[in-house]
Amino acid sequence: MVFQLEEFEHLAYSRQHELAARMLLSLLSILDNSYGVPGAQYQAMPLLAVVPGQREAHVGNRLAAAISCLFSDKHFHFSPQSLVTLFGLQRWFASIFGSTDFINADHVVRALNTAGKGNLNQLEIQSADLPKFCLLYLPESEIVLEIDALYKVNKQLAVSLGLSLLSPRFLGSVQAHGKRETLLPWLTEKLPEIENLEALPFGIMHDVYMHCSYADRPDKHAIKGSINVLIRRWMAQQKLTPLNTAVSIPAEGGKPVMLVVMEWFNAGIRFTAPTRARLKQRGRCFMWWAWAWPMPPMRWGTRCLTNGWRSSPGTCRTRFARSEGWPVTARRRFFTCPAWACSR
Q1: Which of 78, 112, 144 is the last residue of a domain?
Q2: Is the pLDDT reported for residue 309 higher than 60?
């Protein structure tokens, strides 16, 4: 899958909406899968007159301009079925526009505004254009977001926008961080009111769950409870009920078993120390079982069971397992073998 800028420009400027929308969705998916570094999957031909040091900015400005043209067209709309996917990728619009002199996409909102025209303090968007407005309302936007008014018109749209704005890990500017501080309590209250979890961009919900830690509010973790309410409701709808397995009383002198799921964290995650301390305290009362990500069958052997697997030292998960004397393996990005479990 390769994105070619010149082809996208042709489709956007010639008003071939369906094909342009498909290419745009492809680009957002490429950025999401490559963590914003598409490499050879993104192809463009800068003008010969552009000096090498300015080519990236030149290509970025062209891409943002083509997207602006596409969204500004009053006849261009996304299908309702694609909105859930698009909101899961919406944060990449912030990267695209933020890397250019546009900074945000407020100039496109001016084209959608039917009331104040160029004055964004008097904003009125037609209902058909609300999805486009939400997709291009970015953390760096200078527009005052009336989220409650949007919620009265379309609950799923408002909550999807809230999730998208809270999903990025880094919101470094004053405006972006301020939006996080404002939206966290609002979304905490409104999330449980959404009956259908599948109407929301579930693929970024774990980012909201984790990245709320970067807020300053004392109640910043409250949104986790709201997310849990949604997930429990969905599980009940799918009839995923507890097994109610009878408790097995260990023999005299024995210990009950605790399963420890070893998540995939890279070297940038530094919160394993307190987790280690708490688990060690409980180690007096429990027998450990570590459930980790897979390893190639050819690497499985006695040495792994006795000395611990010497895998990628960059993962905190590996360090923790080694310190506890557990065998563990590092998850590779494109690895798809079944998981394994091992006993201490």
Answers
A1: 144
A2: no
